[in-house]
Structure formats: C-alpha cells, structure tokens
C-alpha cells in the first residue's frame, strides 16, 4: 500500500508539472493567437496538434489547476486501489504528451520568428517595385519626347537629304565618266606608242607596249563596261595581228611577246570534254608561226577527198607527224631554244613544237574513230598503229606522258569499251590457235637443257607473251581506272586459259604420266610462277594501290582483305594463282595415285615368286655387299662362294645372277677405281 501511495504521489507531482507546462504553452498560444492564425494560413507547417489541448488551456487559463488535477486523478483512479495498477501506463502517456508539447513549443517559437521576418521582406520588395515603376514612367516620358524631337528633325532635314543624294549621284556619275575617259586615254596613248615604235622599226619596244596593253585588258575583265572591254580587246588584237604579220613576213624569231598575250588573244581549238585532255596553255606565237604551213599541209593531205586521206591507213599521217618532229629537232634545239633561254622563258621549243603537231593528230583521231568503231579489223589496226606512234613519240622524242596524247582519245568511254571488246576477241582467237597447234605441247627449247628447266610447252609460253603484249599496250593509259579494267581483262583471260587446260587435262586423265598430261602440268606451273613474279613488278604494285583505293571506296572487300592488299601480303593476281595452284595440286595427286597403283600392281607379281633373295642382295649393307662382291670375284664357282651366299641367306640364286644384282646397286661408294 505504501508503494502504491508513493506511486500516486509521483503521478500527482508529474501531473502538476505537465499541466503547468500546458498552462504556459496555453498562455503563449492565447497571447499570440492572431499571429498564429496568420502563420497557419501562410505556412505549410502542421500545428494542428495544438487543437487537442484547447480544453486544458481553457481550464488552466481560469487558474483552477489543482481542481483540474484532482478531477483527473479522481476520474482515472478513484477510490479503487486496484486502479493504481494503471499508474505506469499513465506515466508513459504523460511522458509522451510532454515530449509532444515540447516539440510543439519549439515549432511555435520558429513560426513566430519567421512570421516576424516575412512582413519586413514584403515591405522591402513593395518599396523596390514602386521605385522601379516610377523610373519606368520617367523613361517612357523621355522616350516619347525624344521620338517626337527626332521625327521633327527628320521632317525638317528630308529636303536637304534629297538634294544631297542627288548631288552625290551626280558626283559618282562624273567620277565614272572621268575613269572611263582615263581608260580610253591610256589605251590611245599605248596605241600611239606602238604605232611610233613600228614606224621606227623598233619591234621589241612595240611588243613590250603591247604586253602592257594586254595587262590593262586583264585588269578590265571584271568591269561591267562591255563597250570599253570590246574596244580594249579589239585594239589589242589589232596591234597583235600587225606585229604577228610583221614577224612572219620578215621571218624574224628573236622577238617574243609574253606568253599570256598569246593565251589572251589565241583561242586554241579544244576537243570535247569527254576526252578529258589535261589543261594546257596555247602554243607560243613563234612556234605557232612555224606550225602554220605544216598545219595547212596536214589538213590538205589528210582531210576531205584526197587520196592520202585513207581511213584504213592511219600510219600515213602518224608517220608524217613523226617525220616533221624529227626533221625540226636540230633546228629547234640549236636555233630557237637559245633564244627562248635568253629571253628567260621556261618553254622547251622541241616539246612545244611536238605539242602543236599532236593537236592535229588528236583532232584527226577524234574524227576518224567513230567511222571505224564497229569494223574490228580497221579499229584493231588503228589501235596498233597509234600504240606504235605513242611508243616512238615518248621513247625517241621525249614527249612527256603528262601532255595531251593519243591515249586520251582511246580512253574515251565508247572507244575504250570497244577497245576492250576487240582486245578480248582477238586474244581468244589467238588462244584457240595456240592450243590447236601441233606444237602446242612441245617446248621450244627442248634440246637446250640449261634453258628448258621448267619444260614449258609452246602454248603456255605463247599465252604469257600475249599477256605481256597486252600489258605493254595499256600501261600508258592516262588513268588508273582504265588500267584496272585492262587488268580485269587479263585475269579473265588467265581464268579462261586455265579452264581450257583443265578440259584438255581431263581428256588425258587415264594417261596421267603421258607426255601431254605432263606438258599441261608444266604449263600450269609456269603460268603460276610468272604471275607470282609479275606481282612484284612496280607497274602491278601501282595498280594494286589503285585497286585498294577503289575497293575501299566501294566497300567491296572485307577489312582483312584490304589489310592484306595494303600490307602487300597479297597481290592483284592472288585469285588466279590460287586456282592454278589448286589445279597443279590436283594433277600431282593424280600422278602420285597412278604411280602408287602401278607399283602396287607390279608388286603383286612378287607374291608368286621367291627369285626375295634378289631383295636381300639389293638391300645388303655397303660393307657386306662389298665383301660379298670380292668373295664372288675371287672364288668364282668354288665352295667358298656358295658358303658366302648361304651365309647371307641366298640359296637359289646363281652366282652370276648375284653378281648382276650387285652391279645394279646405285649406292656404291667412290673408291677411285
């Protein structure tokens, strides 16, 4: 009972403390009720827990705290001592309520602090807004006033601006007229100077003045004054013609005008763009003068209905051009070139002369090719003659491959595709002829041991010569793409020849050790070996690089294949070489199988015979064989000989047969006898 009484006292004291706290909190709540209401409306803090304490606050506000405690204890405990068991639970509830009230007190204090700060910030913001509004009104008033002043000034100044613009236009017009007159004055002044120089026969100064006039012409190219441009160009052409005629009549070549004057005034005849000729300047004036009579002769003989203009004889005009180049070489090198060098020109007189004549050939080819494009014999003859002409032009006369040449004409799409077709047709015909020849499988060098190590049949050697000739025919084409198309033709021909060899080989399969079968095998091996050698040739390595670029652009090869081509691990002939090597392997396999079968069949006969003793003789060690041979030679027909034979296991073979077998051995040592 005492313990319960003590616990009851603790509860009563705890309640007094708790209710005192509530009273204090309630007072705070009542004193700041209005502020709290405002804060509850503006903030998102949850202080709804205070509502549950309204009754407590109301009771404590009236100052009747002891009565409230007594009533609460009376209600919870009463006179029943058993109810004292609830004290622990009540204490826990009161403790929890106290903690909640403390938290609420902290929150309330923070809310009160914040609520006192917010009005100050709002007032400051409103003040700033008001000041900004006033400043904006002032700016708008100033802008209106300034706009009105500007409009008034523009209206006042408008007549002045119109008058000033008209005056400026007049001044600009006068300046253009003055500039126009200055250009005309300069042209007339230069023209008068040229006339005076010519009157005094001072041709070099006249030519120099003409160069100055041509420079003015170039400066005027961007002008929109078409009449002035026309007057300038007409004046330059007028004096250029007079000087050119004067030099031509006097046959004087020491005076050379600047090259760009010739380029400005001379419009060289250009072939259509489909021929893709490299850009080149016009031929310099002195060489043009030299070429004029030759051009007239060329056009007279090889144009129109002249008897010398025969479409089936391109060699006539090609030989004529080569002869002209050869006949003028010494004169150009010894007479003209020193003058050009002295004048500081970089032009090569001989090449310039050849370039001028080459244009005649190109024009002639471009005109003739369409007429014979579909006559195989005439077209093939034209190509042959053109290639011979090109070879002599480059090798004998040093004509650069970068200049316009006949290969540009043959590279035109229609002509080139026809060339490929004709080349394939005649190559196949030659292949038919070489394979049907009686000497197709016989080596040309069969009687010369040192030369005929590979025992190459005539058809294989002729075929590789054909491929080599085709290479020489297309190797000077101007573009890599055209060369690659010819390379594909060569690979097709190799594959076709391989197929033909395979067909002939199948006919000879039963005689795999026969003469023709072995000749086919030698042919396959020879072609594969030569192609492997060609793969290391500089020309085909360049084609390999060009093919690599084409394949990379078209994505036609895997990264591995592209890497192999780039690293030179493979070549442009690898596909053909692999097929030929496979055919060679198949043929060798057939031969090995045939030999094995023959040996096997021949060995079967020995099963029925003993005669085994011969094998003993042939397989004796060198020392035993030498000893047996000496014994047989020294004791011919004597018992020691028989005993020696029996000792090595020979009982049936006669002594003479044993000696014959011993002599057949090929591994006797060299004893010097």
From TrEMBL:
This is RAD50-interacting protein 1. GO terms for biological process: endoplasmic reticulum to Golgi vesicle-mediated transport; regulation of ER to Golgi vesicle-mediated transport; retrograde vesicle-mediated transport, Golgi to endoplasmic reticulum. PANTHER family: RAD50-INTERACTING PROTEIN 1, RAD50-INTERACTING PROTEIN 1 RINT-1. InterPro entries: RINT1_Tip20. GO terms for cellular component: Dsl1/NZR complex. It comes from the Eukaryota. It comes from Camelus dromedarius. Pfam families: RINT1_TIP1.
């Amino acid at each position: 009972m005492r313990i319960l009484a003590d616990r009851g006292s603790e509860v009563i004291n705890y309640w007094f403390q708790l209710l005192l706290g509530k009273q204090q909190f309630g007072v705070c709540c009542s004193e700041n009720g209005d502020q709290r209401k405002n804060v509850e409306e503006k903030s998102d803090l949850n202080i709804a827990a205070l509502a549950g304490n309204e009754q407590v606050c109301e009771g404590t506000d009236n100052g009747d705290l002891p009565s409230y405690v007594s009533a609460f204890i009376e209600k919870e405990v009463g006179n029943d001592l058993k109810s004292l068991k609830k004290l622990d639970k009540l204490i826990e509830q009161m403790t929890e309520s106290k903690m909640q009230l403390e938290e609420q007190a902290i929150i309330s204090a923070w809310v009160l602090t914040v609520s006192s700060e917010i009005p100050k910030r709002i007032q400051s913001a409103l003040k700033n807004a008001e000041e900004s509004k006033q400043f904006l009104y002032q700016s708008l008033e100033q802008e209106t006033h300034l706009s009105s002043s500007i409009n008034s000034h523009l209206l006042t100044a408008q007549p002045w601006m119109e008058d000033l613009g008209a005056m400026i236009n007049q001044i600009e017009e006068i300046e253009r007229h003055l500039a126009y007159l200055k250009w005309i004055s300069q042209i007339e002044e230069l023209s008068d100077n040229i006339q005076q120089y010519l009157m005094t026969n001072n041709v070099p100064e006249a030519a120099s003045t003409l160069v100055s006039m041509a420079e003015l012409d170039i400066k005027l190219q961007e002008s929109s004054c078409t009449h002035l441009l026309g007057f300038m160009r007409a004046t330059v052409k007028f004096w250029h013609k007079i000087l050119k005629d004067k030099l031509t009549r006097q046959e004087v070549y020491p005076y050379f005008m600047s090259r760009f004057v010739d380029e400005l005034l001379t419009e060289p005849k250009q072939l259509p763009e489909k021929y893709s000729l490299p850009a080149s300047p016009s031929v310099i004036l002195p060489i043009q003068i030299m070429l004029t009579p030759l051009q007239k002769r060329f056009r007279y003989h090889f144009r129109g209905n002249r008897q010398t203009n025969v479409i089936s004889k391109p060699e006539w005009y090609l030989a004529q051009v080569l002869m002209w180049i050869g006949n003028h070489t010494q004169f150009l090198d010894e007479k003209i070139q020193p003058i050009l060098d002295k004048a500081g020109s970089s032009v090569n007189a001989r090449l310039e002369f050849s370039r001028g004549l080459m244009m005649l050939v190109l024009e002639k080819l471009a005109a003739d090719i369409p007429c014979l494009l579909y006559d195989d014999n005439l077209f093939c003859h034209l190509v042959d003659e053109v290639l011979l002409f090109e070879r002599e032009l480059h090798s004998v006369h040093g004509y650069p491959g970068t200049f316009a040449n006949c290969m540009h004409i043959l590279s035109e799409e229609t002509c080139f595709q026809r060339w490929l077709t004709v080349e394939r047709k005649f190559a196949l015909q030659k292949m038919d002829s070489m394979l049907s020849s009686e000497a197709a499988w016989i080596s040309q060098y069969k009687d010369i041991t040192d030369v005929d190590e590979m025992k190459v049949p005539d058809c294989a050697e002729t075929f590789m010569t054909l491929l080599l000739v085709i290479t020489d025919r297309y190797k000077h084409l101007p573009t890599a793409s055209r060369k690659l198309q010819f390379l594909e033709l060569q690979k097709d021909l190799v594959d076709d020849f391989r197929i033909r060899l395979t067909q002939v080989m199948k006919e000879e399969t039963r005689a795999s050790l026969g003469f023709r079968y072995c000749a086919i095998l030698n042919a396959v091996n020879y072609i594969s070996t030569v192609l492997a050698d060609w793969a290391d040739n500089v020309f085909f390595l360049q084609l390999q690089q060009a093919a690599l670029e084409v394949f990379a652009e078209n994505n036609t090869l895997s990264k591995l294949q592209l890497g192999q081509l780039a690293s030179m691990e493979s070549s442009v002939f690898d596909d053909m070489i692999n097929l030929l090597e496979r055919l060679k392997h198949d043929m060798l396999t057939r031969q090995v199988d045939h030999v094995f079968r023959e040996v096997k069949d021949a060995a079967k006969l020995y099963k029925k015979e003993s005669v085994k003793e011969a094998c003993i003789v042939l397989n004796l060690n060198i020392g035993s064989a030498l000893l047996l041979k000496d014994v047989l030679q020294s004791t011919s027909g004597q018992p020691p000989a028989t005993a020696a034979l029996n000792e090595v296991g020979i009982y049936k073979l006669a002594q003479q047969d044993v000696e014959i077998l011993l002599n057949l051995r090929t591994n006797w040592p060299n004893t010097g006898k």
